[in-house]
Design goal:
This protein is an alpha+beta fold. It contains 9 helices and 19 strands. The strands form 6 sheets. Strands 1, 4, 5, 6, 10, 13, 18 and 19 form an 8-stranded mixed sheet that branches. A 3-stranded mixed sheet has the order 7-9-8, with no helix packed on it. It binds zinc ion (ZN).
């Protein structure tokens, strides 16, 4: 059995997504989002993904078993096994740290019994990177990508090196991507890329409007086409705008397609307080990396309805997981659905699948 297993996830931003950097930079925007330090392309850090996955899995477990007891004490999965895990007062007892808790074993816990050491958790998350980025052009929106971004889904693309936009066929008139006017060139591998994206569950209205640019141009195109909003605080006494309370914030625009990976370790290699991990998912003991991934997938319907990142009260954050396609047992319970939305339709994946390593079991 493999020591670990990786799951590629592809998500579509149904709203703008703002994962704040917690700082400001000199420029036009006060509340900036997290960027890759090398490429300057915005991303969602793996730590943010791990936090929301944990919360949503705890919610899903709570819906299935709302009367959970630990050592004769009421210890609900949500909020106790979500969050930071340090006990606060008598109402929040922190992570349960039990070997039969699917939340604490998969996502780790801060401390064991009697403040003993914690556990790092069986699932790890990479940062979510931009795979396809929507840009206005005079021919309507185009979803832009580059060879470096396509590597996220295992595609090696060669020959995209001119300062141009690459389509399946060339055209004589140049095309604007935002403010940038570029010549249009044809590209032989274009159809293969389209097919791979189709097998990742990317909808046709996106892959039919694909555009490829060189790695060097991609960060400029992304950063000059982010959504920037301006808000102002309202004085409750007067109902008018508060003096000096205007602020602006940026976000990945609706329609951005992101890719990330979840890496699951083999539960058989770990012990909690000397005990084997005996948590269950969908009735089965979590005894291999694939079942760890099953636990994490329970968060996917919640990501689509409750979202990720900040500004959730301003219509931001919902992320629909396109790949892997949703399993029927992971559908979100009625009482959690906060907004009406159509179920996503995904094509059956062909090119991409959960990959496991050939490493032998220890
Ligand atoms: Zn727990």
């Amino acid at each position: 059995m493999a020591s670990y297993k990786k799951l590629l996830c592809i998500g579509l931003a149904l709203d703008p997504i703002h994962v704040g950097s917690g700082g400001a930079r000199l420029g036009r925007v006060e509340l900036t989002i997290v960027r890759d330090p090398v490429t300057r392309i915005p991303k969602i850090p793996g730590s943010s993904l791990a936090g929301v996955y944990r919360t949503y899995v705890a919610m899903a477990e709570h819906v299935q078993n709302s009367n959970r007891q630990v050592n004769g004490q009421s210890w609900p999965y949500y909020p106790h096994c979500a969050g930071l895990g340090q006990p606060k007062g008598e109402h929040y007892l922190g992570h349960c740290a039990q070997p039969d808790c699917p939340v604490c074993t998969v996502f780790g816990f801060a401390r064991g019994k009697d403040q003993a050491g914690g556990f790092a958790g069986l699932a790890a998350f990479t940062d979510a990177h931009v795979l396809l980025f929507p840009v206005p052009t005079r021919q309507g929106p185009r979803w832009v990508t580059c060879p470096e971004a396509l590597r996220l889904v295992g595609l090696e693309v060669q020959g995209v090196d001119q300062d141009a936009v690459y389509f399946g066929s060339s055209q004589n008139t140049p095309l604007n991507l935002g403010w940038l006017l570029l010549p249009v060139m044809s590209f032989g591998q274009f159809q293969n890329i389209v097919q791979s994206l189709q097998s990742c569950g990317v909808p046709s209205y996106i892959y039919e409007r694909l555009a490829i640019v060189p790695d060097g141009l991609f960060p400029h195109i992304v950063n000059s086409n982010l959504e920037v909003r301006t808000s102002v605080a309202i004085n409750p006494a007067t109902g008018a705008a508060e003096e000096q309370a205007l602020f602006s914030y940026e976000a990945l625009p609706r329609g951005t397609v992101l890719a990330w990976e979840i890496i699951a370790k083999n539960p058989k290699h770990f012990r909690i307080e000397g005990k084997e991990i005996c948590a269950r998912v969908n009735g089965n003991k979590i005894d291999d990396p694939a079942k760890v991934l099953e636990v994490t997938k329970k968060a996917h319907p919640y990501l689509e309805h409750l979202g990720i990142g900040g500004m959730g009260t301003r219509g931001m954050g919902r992320l629909r997981v396109l790949y892997p396609p949703p399993a029927p047992e992971n559908s979100v319970p009625e009482k959690v659905k906060c907004r009406d939305s159509a179920t996503s339709t995904t094509d059956s994946p062909s090119g991409l699948s959960e990959s496991s390593t050939g490493l032998p079991e220890e």
